[in-house]
Amino acid sequence: MTLNVYLSGEIHTDWREQIIDGAKGLDVTFSSPVTDHDASDDCGVAILGAEDNKYWHDHKGAMINAIRTRKAIEDADVVVVRFGEKYRQWNAAFDAGYAAAKGKSLIVLQQPEHDHPLKEVDAAALAVAREPHQVVEILRYVLTGGLSS
């Protein structure tokens, strides 16, 4: 069995690399949004033309990024959504809801202090992990049926 895993959410720490490195040797393919913050924010105006109004600047970028995000979530077997400590990731919450609506297996990665504000998101998830290594262990178990020693 091969798993296609989409890694959504916070882009300011190395959690994606921790999961990808930890999953070496497992039959997993990973995808993610564009994690270059400037490229993600400015892709719309860079491709479609400048905007004087910041709302339309952001709107163009969000629409183009949504093409990638929707395709990746559609293709995913498992969607992992990381909610970071420093920023409110409204886009991550949207991805979690979209994945849940599509019937995707959802793993949320968050700190305990977010349990209350994310209770509805957590209720839609099949697992709520605290650390990237726990996500790796979930993937390992799903693929092999075994636990790490």
UniProtKB/TrEMBL annotation:
It comes from the Bacteria. InterPro entries: YtoQ_family_protein. This is YtoQ family protein.
